[in-house]
Specification:
heterodimer; A: alpha/beta; Rossmann fold; 6-stranded mixed sheet; 4-stranded antiparallel sheet; 10 strands; 39% helix; B: mainly alpha; two-stranded antiparallel sheet; 4 strands; globular
Chain lengths: 269, 360
């Protein structure tokens, strides 16, 4: 039940001059970025701009070549293993829905919830009432109460995406990263996802990578534009739309940027 | 939906109970020879429970469990051989010109040490192996190939160190076990019931594991290891543990096997037996525990039956059975009941059984 205090919101993630280099290619180059408590922060940019690589960097899937990544002003993420980063409070939802298909929706949430996840503890874990209440609450939030005993592989694409968001939320992260959450969704599902985002940001800071500009316009507070691994500009959606360089990247030079960066980026994403 | 799942779980419990009662009663009607054969199949049935944890639930395919089975079998074999030569140099060692017992032969002379070593040594090997492979993210088919390679290494090693392992002939010519004559039918019966007891205990322990949160984590590793890792689990430690458990179970099975067969040689633990073990799991139904047990018993019984009745063409029969099961029953024999039930009822959502892990 933490509500962001109005004054001096805590910095959740601070990236300073981070670079990721694959061979001679910079997927992320000298990129600095900050997210504060309670923020719903969109990360946009053309294909191959380095958005997903940046998320990978934060959650430990790839490692930085340079720069620093600090969580909640105290944890240096570059020194931690993936699962340790998660335990420090970073949640990641992947682009393609990845849920545990042969477990029920309930079991998916049960496994994901915040608890001692060391092997020795999991071997002795017992179900309890508190856990149940928490899972029920999450089921209601993501709208899957009716499907709780269904195997996750039988869910629709949209439902899987919500389930995965729910799973990540069960970890009670302080930072949630979503990679194109509405890709492949119907308009109706998109709207539901948007509402879900607004509810979730009450509980944690969120970074969303998104391509759908209409969606970004509707829900964004703060937008960061990346281009060729670098920061292009940052601000509200109106600021972004007024920015000439953004226009250039998205419209004018769209053709050649895609040619230059897409194949390399695809291979690393 | 819950009731369907619950019904299924209950029917599986009854199936287990019926199976155990049948196996308790069978020695009263079968000849000593048949009981001995059945006892061997039960040893295999113990082995496949561990394999099912590893492959059926966690999705890690090992084609190298012959190694662990073999370790258990050889350790017990050495002990029995020591008993037979009453502490002296075994016959084959004299033939190859040895004058002194190797240290591990001396150590395994003690029955308690032999029994413990038969389980613990495979586990230690598995911990070391698992730690380095799973920590370094060696996965899927690469892991499987690695296990195959290790089987070859083990077999080659056993054959080349003929002076201490008995080489291609393996170890045989046992006479007593813990002082009791191995040729006495009464001893064999006791061993049969001990094997059955081990089977039931291992089965109960493993089904408890599977029904806990730990079991769900195993299925989650199979369905999406990355997702689980990014949910805060150190998945490689889970893999190391399950690999080790399955190795210990295989070692136990190997010990029980050698007591009843009276010989252990490299061909019994090589590549082909290692692959066959996986087939038993597949035929019974992976990810069901009881399924592989039935699969191991039935497949081996069928093998014996066909090879006795149709000595010329029995391999074709066996091959046909494998093909039929893979094509028509990808979920193994355990999915048979469900398939029939689904055909009989037109209700929707019957696919929702907890046990149906065959999809991925």
């Amino acid at each position: 039940m933490k509500k962001g205090k109005q004054t001096a919101k805590q910095i959740i993630l601070q990236a300073k001059n981070t670079s990721v280099k694959f061979g001679a290619f910079f997927a992320v180059k000298d990129f600095s970025f900050m997210v504060r408590e309670g923020e719903l922060h969109f990360l946009i940019g053309p294909n191959g701009a380095g958005k997903t690589t940046f998320l990978d960097l934060v959650c430990g899937k790839t490692r930085e070549s340079e720069g620093s990544l600090i969580l909640k002003e105290k944890h240096d993420l570059s020194k931690l293993k993936e699962f340790e980063i998660v335990r420090k409070g970073v949640g990641r939802k992947f682009q393609a829905p990845s849920v545990f298909g042969n477990l029920t929706v309930w079991e998916n949430l049960e496994l994901s919830m915040k608890q001692d996840k060391r092997l020795s503890h999991i071997l002795r874990a017992k179900p309890n009432q508190e856990k149940d209440a928490e899972i029920k609450e999450m089921l209601a939030l993501i709208g899957l109460s009716e499907q709780k005993d269904e195997q996750a592989r039988l869910l629709s694409h949209g439902q899987k995406q919500w389930l995965e968001m729910g799973m990540v939320m069960m970890q009670k992260p302080s930072l949630l990263m979503l990679d194109e959450p509405i890709a492949g969704m119907t308009e109706e599902e998109e709207e539901k996802t948007g509402e879900l985002l607004l509810k979730m940001k009450e509980k944690c800071a969120i970074i969303v990578v998104e391509h759908d500009m209409e969606f970004v316009r509707k829900y964004s507070e703060k937008v960061t534009v990346m281009h060729e691994g670098q920061l292009l500009c940052e601000g509200t959606m109106d600021d972004i739309q007024g920015n000439e360089r953004v226009m250039e990247v998205y419209l004018g030079r769209k053709g050649d940027t895609a040619d230059a960066s897409t194949p390399a980026a695809r291979s690393v994403v | 939906m819950k009731s369907v799942v619950a019904n299924y779980m209950i029917s599986r419990k009854w199936l287990l109970l019926a199976l155990v009662i049948l196996l308790i009663l069978l020695p009263f009607v079968l000849s000593d020879f048949r009981v001995n054969l059945l006892g061997r199949y039960l040893a295999f049935a113990i082995l496949v429970i561990g394999l099912d944890l590893l492959w059926g639930y966690m999705g890690v395919l090992s084609l190298g469990h012959g190694i662990f089975f073999g370790l258990g079998a050889y350790i017990m074999g050495i002990h029995l051989k020591m008993e037979a030569s009453s502490g002296g140099l075994p016959d084959f060692m004299m033939w190859s010109g040895m004058t002194e017992l190797p240290w591990f032969w001396t150590v395994l002379q003690h029955p308690v040490i032999a029994i413990l070593a038969g389980i613990i040594v495979p586990m230690i090997i598995a911990v070391i192996l698992g730690f380095f492979t799973f920590r370094n993210r060696i996965q899927d088919v690469y892991f499987t190939i690695l296990t195959q390679a290790l089987v070859m290494v083990t077999v080659t090693l056993l054959i080349s160190r003929q002076d201490v392992t008995g080489g291609t002939n393996g170890l045989t010519g046992f006479s007593t076990i813990f002082g009791f004559s191995l040729s006495d039918p009464a001893t064999q019966r006791v061993i049969y019931y001990v094997t059955l007891g081990c089977l039931v205990i291992i089965l109960l322990i493993c089904s408890r594991l599977i029904n806990s949160l730990f079991g769900k984590a195993l299925i989650a590793i199979r369905d999406g290891e990355n997702r689980l890792r990014f949910s805060g689990y150190d998945t490689s430690m889970f893999k190391v543990l399950v690999f080790t458990i399955s190795a210990g179970i295989a070692g136990l099975a190997g010990m029980l096997f050698v007591m009843q067969v009276g010989i252990i040689s490299p061909t019994q633990i090589g590549i082909i037996p290692s692959i066959e073990m996986i087939l038993w799991v597949a035929i019974g139904g992976r990810g069901t525990l009881i399924g592989p047990v039935i699969g191991a018993i039935l497949t081996n019984s069928a093998k014996t039956f066909f090879s006795e009745s149709y000595p010329d063409i029995w391999l074709y029969f066996l091959g046909a059975v494998f093909v039929i099961v893979v094509i028509f029953l990808p979920g193994g024999l355990m999915s048979l009941g469900k398939k029939l039930k689904r055909r009989n009822s037109n209700e929707k959502g019957q696919t929702n059984s907890k046990a149906d892990y065959s999809a991925s």
